Amino acid sequence: MSKLAFDPTQTDWNLIRSFVAVVEQGSLTRAAEAMGLSQPTLSRQIAELESSIGAALFERVARGLKLTPTGENLVEPARVMMTAARSLGMAAATQNNDMQGTVRITASEMVSGFVLPALLRQLAQQHPEIQIELVASNQISNLLEREADIAIRMIRPAQSALIARHLTDWPIGIYAHKDYLAGLPILSEHEQNNPLAMMQRYRWLGLDQSDQYISGFRAAGIQIDRSFFDFRCDNYLVNWQTIQQGLGVGVVMRWLAERNPDLERVLVEQELPSLPVWLTTHRELNSSKRVRTVFDFLAEGLLQHRF
Predict the structure, then answer these.
(1) Which of 95, 189, 206, 232 has the smallest set of CB atoms within 10 Å of its CB?
(2) Does a structural domain hold residue 26?
(3) Parent domain of 249
(4) Domain membership flag for residue 228
(5) What is the pLDDT of residues 200-237, one digit of tens each?
(6) Ranges assigned E (strand) in the chain
């Protein structure tokens, strides 16, 4: 192994974060998505860190990336550095128990657009001293790095330093506009009894870069690839609008689809998994009175409201 001439005090902290992210995610693509960076940016950061260390940290293997011996030696010290930095930040954040100030929330585009506005209006009426910053994004903001104080997500966070509360489950369904359905050709009785023929009857609206829908169909025993979807976009708000405009059939939360009387549910017999709703914050931020107030308010609101 090369002799290390590495001074962490002279190194950009973001390089250490990127290194640990790639280790934890197992690939540059997943790490870049988790950090909200482009893959070329993340690759440059890893290359810069390797240059400052004087040795390669990863090697490519069939299933992704594997740590080199040098990388293996640096993983735990890098994690210790991150833990210490987080503890310092959290300690500073929790010193002020004053209710006045800002709470930063992250949620998906759909939750931010259709769920939170009504709840945040009620929060503002009860606690006008609290300011809210809302990150409307499907990317997973890193609570451990203070990119957000509270997250509303449809997946459970894996980090032990986070408090995660499973609030409820939202059923989903496959919907289309009635005008689109009215224009479809009538199938024979044989075709109606053939699930594959029924699925191929429709123009499907799906995701572009994300494989979420493909994985979901395959988990249900339906082998499809990206070409199965005739329209692809990773923005769920856009997909929702295309369903309402009659472009084809798409997957949507049932409470949202039922708001539009012109939408009809199709392939009802096709069982789809519900979306779990998780509310998450950092353990140390949970001791902040302001963050705790918003966390508890959102928990109650998401449980009590029937959207």
Answers:
(1) 189
(2) yes
(3) 172-266
(4) yes
(5) 889 999 999 888 888 888 877 778 888 999 999 999 99
(6) 58-61, 64-67, 101-107, 130-136, 150-153, 162-170, 172-177, 205-206, 231-232, 250-253, 263-266, 275-282
